[in-house]
Amino acid sequence: MCKWDKFISCAISVGTILLGANFAFAQSQTPSVKYPGIGRHATIAEVAAWDIDVRPDFKGLPKGSGSVAKGQEIWEAKCASCHGTFGDSNEIFTPIAGGTTKEDIKTGRVASLNDMKQPQRTTLMKVATVSTLWDYIYRAMPWNAPRSLTPDDTYALVAFTLSLGDIVPDDFVLSNNNIADIKMPNRNGMTTKHGLWSVDGKPDVNGNACMNNCVPFVQIGSTLPDFARNAHENIADQNRMYGPYRGADTTKPPLKQLPVSAGTGVTPSVNTPSLASKGPAALFKSENCSACHASNTKLVGPSITDVANKYKGQSDAQDKLMAKVKSGGAGVWGAIPMPPQAQLSDEDRRALVTWMLSEGK
User: Fold this and answer.
1) What is d(CA 16, CA 22) in angstroms, rounded to the nearest whole number?
2) How far apart are CA 65 and CA 206, in angstroms?
């Protein structure tokens, strides 16, 4: 039996809660005080749409599941063109899988990270938390259509990625219920006991400022061991869009000084002279166009056939495409940008565009 004084106390408490809720709602609808009539508070639905990150403790992880088999189907349709069928491609991005062993899974430390002869650090070698894989794939992949994967798709892709490193068996089904049981090969390779994570922690670098008898100049640089220089075959035959120079012939010793075109300040492709006289097909290959453009199949960018059909009959197609090749850009064929090819001569650029407009004939 409820006593009257307790009833009054309960009624006051409920009234206070309701009043507070109404006040909070009124605040959420009130425009900015500093700038009257401008802006509003984000709604709960709007905040939820952006609040999709997944933490290492799996807070924010949605419910769902996906099998390795389903992940392989999605991988081959949306991921293999950039990462390779088995996640080991180095043509467009660095490899996803490789470099880990069953012993690494037991110890939680990837031994090959300390091996100077390890030619490539893959994703599964470095990532310490499985939540990182899930979060990044869900938010940012596929590269040309981020946020297009469902939670179940993401579980399936993560399961397939883990299977590539023999972290889970081929018949594994990953879900929000068992993801915390996954043991990443490098789970013990990450530390948070330093200043990058905690203001009270020690710095993650060590060094002392020189105060006496200091040298006037220190050359800072990096070197690549001879045995690793051609570890992934000749870079001149591959897709290397960014860096100090493009098209380095890794079958030969490195150049002591990079050549620069007189008066332009533009560094040309190393060991890649004008090939217009040798034919546009050779030019297409030497400038790594084939890394993104296939003959009649969409790769990263449109096929040669698609380009020819799109500009067929346009009188200004030649000049338009020459300018496009020179300056690069995105938007015509999607969001993936084509890097500028300013190092090409006008002669090479014209030969290449003419050849593409004729469908490579």
Assistant:
1) 10
2) 44
Question: pTM for this one?
Answer: 0.51
DSSP H or E segment with residue 15: helix 4-28
- DSSP string covering 259-301: ---TTT-PPPPTT----GGG-HHHHHHHTTGGGTB-SSSBSSS
Cis peptide before 203 (omega within 30 of 0): no
Output the six-digit token pair for 190. 């990450």
What one-letter code names the amino acid at 212? N
Query: Residue 144: helix, strand or coil by DSSP?
Result: coil
Asked if residue 249 lies in contact with residue 264, where contact means CB atoms within 8 angstroms, the answer is no
294, amino acid identity: A
List the Cα angle 61/62/68 in 5-degree steps: 90
Classify residue 97 by burial, with Cβ atoms within 10 Å: 0-12, 13-18, 19+.
buried
User: pLDDT tens digits for 197-256?
Assistant: 777 777 766 667 777 788 777 777 767 777 778 877 787 777 544 444 456 778 887 766
Q: Which of 174-178, 228-232, 295-299, 335-339 is modeled with the greatest confidence?
A: 174-178
How far apart CA 242 and CA 121 sit, in angstroms, is 19
Q: What is the pLDDT of residues 22-38, one digit of tens each?
A: 434 444 444 456 777 88
Domains plus CATH for the chain? 15-50 (no CATH), 65-181 (1.10.760.10), 276-357 (1.10.760.10)
Query: E strands, 88-131, where?
Result: none
Instruction: Find the radius of gyration of the CA atoms of the chain.
Output: 28
CB of 66 within 8 A of CB of 158?
yes
Determine the Cα–Cα distance for residues 43 and 34; give it in Å rounded to an integer: 20
Token look-up 């939540």 returns 131
Contact 217, 106 (CB under 8 A): no
User: Is pLDDT of 195 > 90?
Assistant: no
CA angle 351-357-361, nearest 5°? Answer: 80
